[in-house]
Design brief:
heterodimer, A: Cytochrome Bc1 Complex, Chain D, domain 2, 0% strand, globular, B: alpha+beta, 11 strands, disordered N terminus
Chain lengths: 150, 275
């Protein structure tokens, strides 16, 4: 009896653990931080770097200088340099900033990368879609955590 | 001759130095106003700048001499079109209009309201094409129209932009202003986020300007043709993954009036050159 109960617990717990947090159910604290991983899978910083630089994905270089990618051309200057960003923020803060920076910086120009609703006149093919997947967000956050040098 | 010059400059343009806001636009001895006090209606900006100021030295140079300016190939073609009869009336522009120079000053005041409707230069030309020449309407940003509107706007080159925003223009202007400040698309950005809050900053390889239209229609090195105001608006909206309004729509005409009014005081530069 006790045994069966434990198994049932595990089974019902599985979707919560393995399933992704959907864009509408991300839980932000009052400062805009997101404590819980969006996927439960540890982020891959190498893939995160690719997503960061890719113009059709993060395109973070459009607005940020990042000396770790000094080889890539054209770093923008709309946002602050991300050098040493891991020393300025906790992982939960960075997850919140990437998922929806407007919770941390109200009115910012930085796009929200993990929302899928509330768009005005989106191009049809992007309607109802988030800019990044949950795992891509985790990967980018893992990459940001490697940026320790000022 | 000009085609060769264009190809060479295309190769040079990749990325050059950024001439500062003190660069002087001087064409054939005439000095243009590329920087001046913002019109009173602008709440968040003190000084307005022509987009020319933000371009690289190489791109700027192409506008300094009409012989180097690739846009004039298309302006010359429009002069031929000016004399070409079209439509059931068998008339050319020149059958009724003595010289294109009679349109001096027109571009500086457009768009304007006529009988409650906002009209652009394109609308005025199309009225002649359809109602006076009996021809098919020219497509809003097609090559015939972009060339002809460039030729006509060129007659006002050097004059200060001066569109009317009050009286019967007010409701259109308000609509344009609302569109300018509304965040759209998957990237949730408004024109103002880039062209008011961030002009002077690099966004990737692009040096953000104030998104002024005093140089339109203008030549872009990117697509080697004349580009219209509405075509540019459309491009900016698509870049932020927003569904653009239609070229010639009430929304884009209102936006054109509003953006033009943010440039009141800058010299008309048509045909300008941009990357």
């Amino acid at each position: 009896m006790k045994h069966a109960f434990a198994i049932a617990m595990v089974v019902t717990a599985v979707p919560v653990w393995a399933g992704e947090v959907t864009p509408s159910s991300v839980s932000f604290d009052e400062y805009g931080a997101v404590t819980e991983s969006l996927t439960g899978v540890t982020g891959d910083p190498e893939n995160g770097a690719k997503v960061f630089a890719n113009r059709k994905q993060g395109n973070c270089l459009a607005c940020h200088v990042n000396s770790d990618m000094a080889d890539a051309p054209f770093h923008g200057e709309v946002g602050p340099s991300l050098d040493g960003v891991a020393g300025r923020w906790e992982i939960a803060d960075l997850r919140g900033i990437v998922a929806n920076s407007k919770k941390t910086f109200p009115g910012t120009i930085m796009p929200a990368f993990y929302i899928d609703a509330g768009y005005e006149r989106p191009l049809e093919k992007f309607s109802g879609k988030s800019l990044l997947s949950a795992q891509q967000v985790e990967d980018v956050v893992a990459y940001l955590m490697t940026l320790t040098e000022e | 001759m000009r085609t060769i010059a264009t190809v060479c400059t295309l190769l040079l343009v990749a990325k050059g130095a950024v001439a500062g806001e003190d660069a002087v636009l001087d064409i054939e001895g005439e000095t243009f106003i590329t920087k001046t006090a913002a019109p009173a209606h602008m709440e968040n900006v003190d000084t307005i700048f022509s987009g020319w100021v933000f371009r690289t030295d190489e791109t700027q140079a192409l506008q300094l001499d009409d012989f180097d300016n690739p846009a004039f190939v298309f302006v010359d073609q429009a002069l031929d079109q000016w004399d070409t009869a079209e439509g059931s009336a068998g008339k050319a522009c020149s059958s009724c209009h003595e010289d294109v120079s009679e349109f001096e000053g027109l571009k500086a005041k457009l768009p304007r309201v006529e009988n409650g409707e906002l009209v652009t230069l394109t609308n005025l030309v199309n009225t002649c094409v359809t109602e006076r020449m009996g021809a098919e309407e020219w497509s809003y940003s097609g090559s015939k129209m972009s060339g002809m509107t460039a030729l006509i706007a060129h007659q006002s080159r050097g004059m200060a932009m001066d569109v009317k925003i009050d009286g019967d223009a007010a409701p259109h202007w308000e609509l344009g202003k609302e569109i300018y400040y509304t965040r759209v698309g998957q990237l949730q950005m408004a024109c103002a986020n880039c062209h008011e809050d961030n002009y002077g900053n690099m966004i990737r390889a692009d040096h953000l300007s104030q998104g002024q239209i005093n140089g339109f229609p203008l030549y872009r090195l990117k697509n080697a043709k004349i580009n219209t105001t509405h075509g540019r608006f459309k491009g900016c909206m698509k870049n932020i993954r927003a569904t653009p309004y239609k070229e010639g729509s009430a929304e884009f005409k209102a936006l054109e009036l509003y953006v033009a009014s943010r440039g009141n005081g800058l010299s008309v530069e048509t045909p300008a050159v941009r990357n």
